[in-house]
Structures are given as structure tokens and as C-alpha cells.
Amino acid sequence: MEAERETIDRYVAAYLATKVGEIVPARITGVQPFGFFATVDGLGGDGLVPVSTLGSERFFYDEAARTLDSEHGRVSYSVGQRLELRLMDANPVSGALRFELPDAPEGGFRNRPPRRDGLKKAGKHMVGKRGRPGNIRHQGRKR
User: Domains of the chain, with CATH numbers?
Assistant: First the structure.
């Protein structure tokens, strides 16, 4: 059963690879803290809509309701919801699809509000409240 699904995903991704950039009707099939999964209506290919492409607002994951809710309650994404999505990437080898909202700016949303917890990002690591200060790096063992 799993091999059959993977094969179908690869065929759908190969078909949709020629349609990158087009808007397709979809239905949300799963919600996670990092985004939501959607299935293309009529074809059955599953793809991810990363939370980073949803807008400049913060989104919070409600596990009990299986929803992604915006910080100010303006937008909510839940399982079963139908919406239009823009196909951004289709990989026929892995069968992976990536979507974003049709009104998203080119390259996704970049201007996010500052973090509420007071932490700053320094390189790959969060710096501020705990741990090593941002200006000190681990030098390793000297011989």
C-alpha cells in the first residue's frame, strides 16, 4: 500500500513539474507546527505549505483542534479546508510537492515581527537569556 502511494506521488509530481507557478485547487489534509499538508483536488498529490510562506504574522499550532491560527486570530488553517495554492516546486524523483499561498510575494515573506521572548538570532543559534553569550564561540580543545 505504501509503495503504491509513493508511486502515485511520483507520477503526480512528474505531471505537475510542467505546471510550476500555476494555481491549483487543494484541500488541507494535515496540520503541523511547521506548516500544513495539502492534496491537489482531482490528482491526489500531497505537498507542503511551510509556515514561513503564510505571511508576516506568527502562527500557533493548536494540537487539539489540529489548526494553525494566526497571532491576532485573522487567519486559521484546518484539516478539510479547501483553498487555492500556487505550486512552487515538484520533484518527480522523490514525489515531493511544495506550495505557497497565491498572494505571497516572490521568495516568500521575509519581514517578520521581532520575537516576543526577547531572544535574538546570532548565526544559527538563539542568543540572549541562557547559555553562552553570542560573542563567545567554542574554540575546541587546544593542544
Answer: 2-106 (2.40.50.140)
What pTM, to 2 d.p., does this model score? 0.69
77 CB-contact burial (10 Å; exposed 0-12 / middle 13-18 / buried 19+)? buried
CA distance 45 to 57: 28
How confident is the model over 31-69, as pLDDT tens digits? Answer: 999 999 999 998 888 899 998 888 778 889 988 889 999
Q: What are the cell numbers at 3?
A: 509503495
The grid coordinates listed for 54 are: 503564510
DSSP states along 1-35:
-HHHHHHHHHHHHHHHGGGTT-EEEEEEEEEETTE
Cα angle vertex 114, ends 52, 77, to 5°? 35
Q: DSSP per residue over the chain, as a string?
A: -HHHHHHHHHHHHHHHGGGTT-EEEEEEEEEETTEEEEEETTT--EEEEEGGGS-SS-EEEETTTTEEEETTSS-EEETT-EEEEEEEEEETTTTEEEEE-TTPPTT----PPPPTT--EEETTEEESSSSS-TT--------
